[in-house]
Amino acid sequence: MINQDHANFKSMWTEYNGPNMNNEMKQKLGWALIREIAMHSSAEEEVMYPEVSWGLAVCWQIRKRLGDEAADHLLGHDGHQKMKDLLYEANNMTIEKNGETAYTAKLDEAMKVLYHHVAEEETQVWPRFESLPGVDADLLSHLGKKFESAKSHAVTRPHPWAPNKPPLNVIANTMTAPLDGLADMWRFAGNPPRH
Ligand SMILES: [Fe+2]
Ligand SMILES: [Fe+2]
């Protein structure tokens, strides 16, 4: 499920850089990409990272051994923060206002961080989590459902200054998501993509 989202981001980005894309198509795809990534990161921070962090903390005492900063890096908060900062900047730009070259360059910066981050998740974070004692198919399917439901009330725009750990992120996301929804109504001309 999570890796499906990752694959989706990559195919959207490939499409963005593909032939026959005019500026209007790129702008729409850029907005849709920012929206998908914001929802995905928000749901991960609500559902997956606390689980992973709890599992790793208990089994390997990783926080104690590595310290908070290194643990945050391993758990992906680091990558999310960099990505949110860059996507926030991209979100405040448009092709019309800033030009196609600058807009694409900013998205490209964000996507480089994203590619690196999703590779870390897929090759390190999730496999380590899945190999922990007590993590079985039932738990994974339960988390998958929670992840999907967190996405349905997730923020749809990047908020780099919002809290990223429970319980404060859940409260902040719940309050912010409707405002993002309103702004998206305008951006997507009354038809924000529904998940
Ligand atoms: Fe992530
Ligand atoms: Fe992810």
Describe the structure.
By secondary structure, this protein is mainly α. The chain has one domain. Helices cover 78% and strands 0% of the residues. It is built from eight helices and no strands. Helix 2 packs across helix 7 and helix 4 packs antiparallel against helix 6. The radius of gyration is 17 Å and the shape is globular. One fe (ii) ion binds next to helix 2 and helix 6. The site of one fe (ii) ion (FE2) has 6 residues, from helix 2 and helix 6. InterPro entries: Hemerythrin-like. This is Hemerythrin-like domain-containing protein. Pfam families: Hemerythrin.
Order of helices and strands: HHHHHHHH
Shape: globular
Main beta sheet: strand number and arrangement?
Answer: none
Show unreliable segments. none
Terminal Cα span: 13 Å
Tell how many strands the DSSP assignment holds: 0
**Number of helical stretches of at least 4 residues:** 8
Task: Tell me the number of structural domains.
Answer: 1
Rounded mean pLDDT is 86
* Structural class category: mainly alpha
Rg calc:
17 Å
Bound molecules: fe (ii) ion
Helix content percent band: over 70%
Report the portion of residues in β strands: under 5%
InterPro entries: Hemerythrin-like (IPR012312)
Organism: Volvox carteri f. nagariensis
Domain Hemerythrin-like: 24-127
Protein name: Hemerythrin-like domain-containing protein
